Amino acid sequence: MISYVKILLIVLSWAARTTAEPKCEACLFNTAPLREDEDCSVYSVYQDTTLQAWYRANETCLQALNISQAAVPKDRMWGICPYANENDASNTLLTLFVRNDNSSAAQSVRSMYPEFFHNETLELNPTVPGAQGQIVNCSVSDDLCWNEFGIFFVLNPEELGRVCSQLHVAQKASLIQEQAAVREALCGATTNDTSLDVCQPLWQQIQDLSVNSCESVSRVDYGSFLPPNCTESEGSGVASVGMGMLTLTLLSSLFY
Ligand SMILES: *[C@@H]1O[C@H](CO)[C@@H](O)[C@H](O)[C@H]1NC(C)=O
Ligand SMILES: *[C@@H]1O[C@H](CO)[C@@H](O)[C@H](O)[C@H]1NC(C)=O
Ligand SMILES: *[C@@H]1O[C@H](CO)[C@@H](O)[C@H](O)[C@H]1NC(C)=O
Ligand SMILES: *[C@@H]1O[C@H](CO)[C@@H](O)[C@H](O)[C@H]1NC(C)=O
Ligand SMILES: *[C@@H]1O[C@H](CO)[C@@H](O)[C@H](O)[C@H]1NC(C)=O
Ligand SMILES: *[C@@H]1O[C@H](CO)[C@@H](O)[C@H](O)[C@H]1NC(C)=O
Ligand SMILES: *[C@@H]1O[C@H](CO)[C@@H](O)[C@H](O)[C@H]1NC(C)=O
User: pTM of the entire structure?
Assistant: First the structure.
C-alpha cells in the first residue's frame, strides 16, 4: 500500500517536471496582446553550446524590474499596426504616434518621408505636399500639415503597409532585447529578493543554471543553432509521463 503511494508520488513529480518545462513553441513577439503570445519560449544561444528555451517574463515581472524597452508602447502598437502590413492599420493613430512620440521608432518613420520631415533634424518641413497637389504652409498651422500626413496614408495604403512592416520588425527586436535584459537582471539579483517572485518560473530557471557570467543569459541570437522545430515534440510531455507510469507499474509488479 505504502509503496503504491510512493509510486504515485514519483509519477506525480515526474508529471510535474515534464509539464514544468518551457514550451517548445517560440514566442512570435507579434503585436497581438501579450496574453495571446505568452505560453511560449524565448530562444537564445547559451554558452555557445545550447539553444536555450527560456520562459518568457510577463508584464508584472517587467514592472517589478522596471524594464521597458518596447520600440512602440505595447498597448498602442496593437491599435496602430495590428499586422506587419496595412490591414486594419490606423492612419490616425500612426499620425498621433509620429507626431507625439519622440522614440527612435517614431523618428524612423519620419526619416522615411523627407517630403514631410527635414532629412536631418526630422522636424516638420516649413511646407508639405497636399493631397490635391497644392503646397501646404505649416507655419499657418501645424495641424494642417499633420492632417496631410494622415491623408497621405489613406491615399497610399502601400506606404502604411511599409511603415507597419518596419514597426513590426523594430518591435519584435526590442521585445527580444527586453527579455534578455530581464534575464540579465534576474541573474544578477539577490536570491532572497521576494519581490521578484513575480518573475517565476524564469527566475528559478536562471538560478538552476548557476551561471558564472550573466552575459551568457542575455544573448539574443541563436549562435550556430537552427530555430527549434516543434512539430515532433508535440505532446511528448504526455507521452513521457505515460511511459514513466508504464515503467513504474511494471517495476511494481516485479517487486511487490
Ligand atoms: C525606472 O527606470 C527609469 C528609466 O530607466 C528611471 O527613470 C526610473 O527612476 C526607474 N524607476 C525605479 C522605481 O527604479
Ligand atoms: C527628443 O529626443 C531628443 C534626444 O533623445 C531630445 O534632444 C529632444 O529634446 C526630444 N524632444 C522632445 C520634444 O521631447
Ligand atoms: C539631406 O539632404 C541634403 C540636401 O538634399 C543632403 O545634402 C544631405 O546629405 C542629406 N542628409 C542625409 C542625412 O541624408
Ligand atoms: C507661410 O506662411 C507664412 C505666414 O503666413 C509666410 O510668412 C510664409 O511666407 C509662407 N511660406 C510660404 C512658402 O508660402
Ligand atoms: C539577502 O541576502 C544577502 C546576501 O546573501 C544579505 O546580505 C541580505 O541581508 C539578505 N536580505 C534579506 C532581506 O534577507
Ligand atoms: C506573471 O507571473 C507571475 C508569476 O508566475 C504571476 O504571479 C503574475 O500574476 C503574472 N502576471 C500576469 C500579468 O500574468
Ligand atoms: C520539423 O520536423 C518534422 C518531423 O521530423 C519535419 O517533417 C519538418 O519538415 C521539420 N520542419 C522544419 C522546418 O525543419
Answer: 0.80
